[in-house]
Design a protein that fits this description.
Blueprint: H1 12-19, E1 24-27, E2 32-34, E3 42-56, E4 62-68, E5 73-74, E6 85-98, H2 99-107, H3 110-135, H4 139-156, E7 163-165, H5 170-177, H6 181-193, E8 197-199, E9 204-207, H7 210-218
Antiparallel strand pairs: 1-6, 2-6, 3-4, 3-5, 3-6, 7-9, 8-9
Length: 219
């Protein structure tokens, strides 16, 4: 994960110093890393697994704001509290660093600061894309966009270009995309019937027609 994580900006000597700054922590599936409103006293790099960022509305509905994949960074915020509840979707491992120690270390590492700046820009772009996804796209377009996002993340981790692992439940997909579970299942079935995708396992599928899925995602 070093190449795609923030620590990829460090040379070997700096990386050793960086790793001495915090322990590795592990969470089982369903365990909470941080609750919404908790003090943001640490930052994390996800080295294995999958994390879910969510918030509950006053009426009990859940909105998933995003997922963190291996190599992603958690805690890049100017706020003193966590804006979302962070939970492990599957068994996950993270490098945890106390915020003051990390800030002090980063201040002496221009390459790391540049990587964090780029990461902040990517998160802003992702947030804007999520607004378009929820505000304007149809159910089919949302599902297609989600599958392409998983394909991009899979390629970053070395997965074949058209093979996709869906590590989240239909409920998680629905709460992320603003759709009912029944709608998620129906849209996936329609894509399968149209031979745009092919299921290769309980949580894996293959893109059979990438051009078509890209057209659907773009509307």
């Amino acid at each position: 994960m070093r190449d795609i994580a923030v620590c990829g900006a460090l040379d070997d000597a700096s990386l050793r110093c960086f790793k001495e700054g915090g322990p590795t922590v592990a969470y089982d599936a369903g365990e909470t890393v941080a609750f919404e409103g908790d003090a943001a006293t640490s930052v994390y790099t996800l080295t294995a697994g999958l994390l879910r960022l969510s918030r509950f509305l006053p009426d009990g509905r859940r909105q998933i704001a995003g997922f963190l994949f291996p190599g992603d960074f958690l805690g890049l915020t100017l706020e003193k509290e966590h804006a979302f509840t962070v939970q492990a979707v599957v068994p996950s491992t993270l490098c945890r660093f106390p915020r003051p120690r990390f800030d002090s270390f980063a201040a002496g590492q221009p390459a790391l600061e540049r990587r964090l700046y780029a990461l902040a820009a990517q998160e802003l772009a992702a947030a804007r894309e999520q607004l378009v996804l929820l505000g304007r796209k149809t159910a089919t377009e949302r599902i297609a966009s989600f599958l392409l996002m998983l394909a991009r993340r899979g390629r970053a981790e070395g997965t074949a270009a058209d093979d996709i692992r869906i590590p989240v439940s239909r409920a998680d997909m629905g709460d992320y995309l603003g759709l009912r579970i029944e709608t998620v299942s129906r849209e996936l079935s329609n894509l399968k019937a149209a031979r745009v995708i092919q299921f290769t396992g309980r949580q894996t599928l293959r893109l059979c027609d990438r051009d078509r899925i890209e057209q659907l995602a773009e509307g």
